[in-house]
Design brief:
With about 210 residues, the protein is α+β, with helices and mostly antiparallel strands. It contains six helices and nine strands.
């Protein structure tokens, strides 16, 4: 069998090495290209990209609540000392009264209203009355909320001139006129009739 000359063998080996190297480079080049993400195309041919955090929709502004009209009478006008005495001689003004956070009295004060505190000198039971004149929209919302959560009290007055409600669980009374929101709270109010003399007195003293 004939033997190829040594120079021919070396040339053939170099050719094989060169072909192998080029093939390896081509494979590496293709591998590098496959790692690059390509944008998704739409049917029209335009590329689409995902929105970034900087493209988020700005928050919408909260609706403003119209403040209530300031109440121009004080506690001694809303309930005169004689009204309190007629209700119970042991009840008098509470000089340290502060409306509890989240209470109806606190809501009245926050809406330009007044809140009045009273104390039973023997039992230390507390009583408070509040009065506010909310905007018509807020007054309607409060009336609807009271109607949904409390028991109507027809003896306080006749709707729509006077709409009264009582919650026996909390001793809370809410009375609505076309302009005003009157509230009262006390553990002394076991039933609607317990506060009726005071409620009627307060209604009669409401500003025109």
């Amino acid at each position: 069998m004939p033997v190829a000359p040594a120079p021919a063998l070396r040339a053939r080996s170099r050719s094989l090495l060169l072909v192998g190297s080029l093939a390896a480079i081509a494979v590496l080049g293709l591998a590098g290209c496959s790692a690059e993400p390509t944008p998704e195309s739409t049917p029209g041919g335009a590329a689409t990209t995902e929105p970034t955090d900087g493209q988020s929709t700005p928050p919408t502004a909260e609706p403003t609540v119209e403040p209530g009209t300031p109440i121009t009478i004080d506690c001694k006008t809303l309930l005169a000392p004689q009204d309190i005495y007629d209700f119970n001689p042991n009840v008098s003004t509470d000089p340290g009264f502060v409306p509890a956070e989240g209470s109806l009295a606190a809501a009245a004060v926050a809406d330009n209203g007044i809140a009045c505190g009273y104390l039973h000198q023997t039992s230390n039971e507390l009583m408070n009355f509040s009065l506010s004149q909310p905007s018509p929209e807020q007054l309607t919302l409060a009336l609807n909320a009271a109607a949904a959560s409390s028991t109507p009290v027809p003896t306080y007055g006749t709707p729509p001139a006077v709409s009264g409600f009582f919650d026996p669980a909390s001793g809370e009374i809410q009375v609505f006129t076309p302009k005003y929101w009157l509230t009262a709270t006390s553990t002394m109010f076991g039933e609607p009739g317990d506060a009726e003399p005071l409620v009627r007195a307060a209604i009669s003293h409401l500003p025109e």
